Amino acid sequence: MNIPCDEIISIIHSSSMPIPTPLVSRHVAVVGAGAGGLVAARELRNEGHSVVVYENQSRLGGTWVYDPDVESDPICQDPSRTMIHSSLYDSLRTNLPREAMGFRDFPFVAKDGIGRDARRFPGHKEVLMYLEDFADEFRIGEMIRFDSEVRYVGLVDGGKWRLRSWEKRDGEFEDVYDAVVVCNGHYAEPKIADIPGIGCWPGKQMHSHNYRVPEPFRDQVVVLIGSAASAVDISIDIAAVAKEVHIASRSAKEVALGKQPGYKNMWLHSMITSAHEDGTVVFQDGSKILANVILHCTGYKYHFPFLDTSGMVTVDDSRVGPLYKHVFPPALAPGLSFVGLPWKVVPFPLCELQSKWIAGVLSGRISLPSQEEMMEDIEAFYTKLEAAGIPKRYTHNCADCQFEYGDWLATKCGCHGSEEWRKEMYSQSSKTRHEKPGSYRDEWSNNQLFLQALEDFRKFLPPALIDILCNSL
Ligand SMILES: Cc1cc2nc3c(=O)[nH]c(=O)nc-3n(C[C@H](O)[C@H](O)[C@H](O)COP(=O)(O)OP(=O)(O)OC[C@H]3O[C@@H](n4cnc5c(N)ncnc54)[C@H](O)[C@@H]3O)c2cc1C
Q1: What is the average per-residue pLDDT within 342-357?
Q2: What is the model's pLDDT at position 285?
Q3: Is Flavoprotein one of the keywords (predicted)?
Q4: How far is CA 21 from CA 3, 146, 254, 363, 464, in A?
């Protein structure tokens, strides 16, 4: 490859690599300044790239910027509705212990200060403050163009990328980049359940994207569809004020159906089979109730309305593909990449590893297999999912392989893999979350893992702070 002189930014000399390797500096756009975009920007700049981050909101933090407002369409189906990015509800606390949740080299530990929340599973404001601390520490703000919505990203001649943005103050801009890293999040475009008869059902419907506080559900009979983490939180939130909460779950085990222990007004049902003009909702097990509200806690779609790849990257039944290791579309690599697509994972450290990999690939420090080899890998992955009976929509569900995947990325980047304490903390918190959904956040008893985490954090934090944190356990 012929590299222009002004693109050569550094020469690495190392004993294991006697021939100097010229690294290439690229001009890179990052779409989004949530956790993924922030860490992508840091890793790209560390690698020597010049970076511009486009952020539609007026502040950084993505999902963690709580917005008390809701969208104009409660079930988020009208394409012309006013859009809100964050799906956070007021009572939201993290579902992971903070130590496990944070970036690998910027520990998410309790801090003194106004508005800080020292709890192990803190409220959402604390996560936003942590992301702001991260951005301050690494001067990421100076790379961000706020109030700047990316409306078009497409390939131009010479393998570069045209990006058109709409800036609230100054209107439309067009820029050309060597590469674009997509970090726009995937909890903003809701999916709703398809319910036979819903068209003539007279009640109210809402998606959890628009759920903020329980008060509007006071004295109501609510049917809540879903069983993921936020469905569980919201059902508990609402049960405090609603007349009845009926949870309809695809994955409910038969033995668990019926009145829920510990709650006087909560029932678990199988899926809804139909809704009727008289206001009743009927479940698969034959039971029926007269309901006021259906609350869809039914998840979100991957959505890239700005991306024009001429069909080279598609979203099909929640599969974004084809993507090599959830990041690079082989035909467009390394100019286009995605950070943060995996779900049921610990997102911050995983985004960090994906970003390191992307940054290293773009500079030429890390090489990718050929396009054909990447496609073969993807085909083999899809075949494996199919053979195991895993539906397409679970392509990016990395619950069972996140640490293995993270370790693979770490090896490529030449850095350490996932810490043992982090893996164990994740697994223990997932278990206790299922066993005690209403209290797991405040009943953690195994301090040994936290001591291990704090020992690890000695690399990044002053010894006196570590001692204070250890003593507070
Ligand atoms: C209810 C809920 C609870 C969660 N709880 C936890 C938890 O406890 N722990 C945990 O680790 N994770 C949790 N998560 C996951 C959470 O999504 C991640 O922690 C993290 O926020 C993902 O960061 P991201 O950068 O990928 O996406 P986001 O945080 O969504 O950021 C994407 C950014 O891109 C911007 N953007 C989008 N489109 C454009 C565009 N066209 N132009 C410019 N900017 C654009 C958005 O404005 C946003 O700022 C939760 C998620 C939800 C929805």
Answers
A1: 98
A2: 84
A3: yes
A4: 12, 36, 61, 10, 41
> What is the domain-level CATH number for residue 223?
3.50.50.60
Nearest CA to ligand 1 atom 9: 94
**Measured between alpha carbons, how far is residue 93 from residues 119, 124, 145 in Å?**
9, 6, 29
pLDDT digits (tens, 9 = 90+) for 89-115: 999 999 999 999 999 999 999 999 999
Q: Judge contact between 33 and 62, C-beta under 8 A.
A: yes
pTM exceeds 0.90, yes or no: yes
- pLDDT at 182 (0 to 100): 99
**Strand pairing of 148-155 and 307-308?**
parallel
Task: Please tell me the distance between residue 250's alpha carbon and the centre of ligand 1 in angstroms.
Answer: 25
**Can you give the three-state secondary structure of 288-357, one letter per residue?**
EEECCEEEECCCECCCCCCEECCCCCEEECCEEECCECCCECHHHCCCEEECCCCECCCHHHHHHHHHHH
Task: Estimate the crossing angle of helix 347-363 against helix 35-46, to 10 degrees.
Answer: 30
Residues 86 and 171 in one domain: yes
Does residue 237 share a domain with residue 127? no
Kindly list the distances between the CA atom of residue 410 and the CA atoms of 101, 112, 352, 419, 453, in Å, as whole numbers in the listed order: 17, 33, 10, 11, 19
Instruction: Report how far residue 109's alpha carbon sits from residue 386's, in angstroms, rounded to the nearest whole number.
Output: 41
Q: How far is the CA of 32 from the centre of ligand 1 (A)?
A: 9
Say if residue 273 is in the same domain as residue 353: no
Same domain, 184 and 259: no
Six token digits for residue 199: 């068209």
Residues 169 and 305 in one domain: yes
Query: Within 13 Å of residue 6, how many CA atoms lie on the same side as its CB?
Result: 2
Angstrom distance (rounded) from CA 315 to CA 311: 10
CB 55 within 8 A of CB 79: no
Q: Is 98 helix (H, G, I), strand (E, B) or coil?
A: helix
DSSP 8-state assignment for residue 96: S
How far is the centre of ligand 1, averaged over its atoms, from the C-alpha of 86 (Å)?
Answer: 7
Torsion sign across C-alpha atoms 409, 429, 97, 343: positive
Tell me the best of 184, 348, 396 to mutate to test the pocket of ligand 1, counting ligand atoms within 8 Å of each CB and taking the most.
184
**Number of residues assigned to the chain:** 473
Residues lining ligand 1, judged by CB closer than 6 Å? 31-37, 54-57, 62-64, 85, 87-88, 92, 94-96, 101, 149-150, 183-185, 187, 230, 306, 340, 347-348
Judge contact between 464 and 105, C-beta under 8 A.
no
Residues 215 and 115 both lie in one domain = no
Percent residues over pLDDT 90 in the chain: 89
- Identify the band that residue 255 occupies on the pLDDT scale cut at 50, 70 and 90: confident
**Tally of structural domains, the chain:** 2
The rounded Å distance from CA 210 to ligand 1 centre is 15
Mean pLDDT of the chain: 94
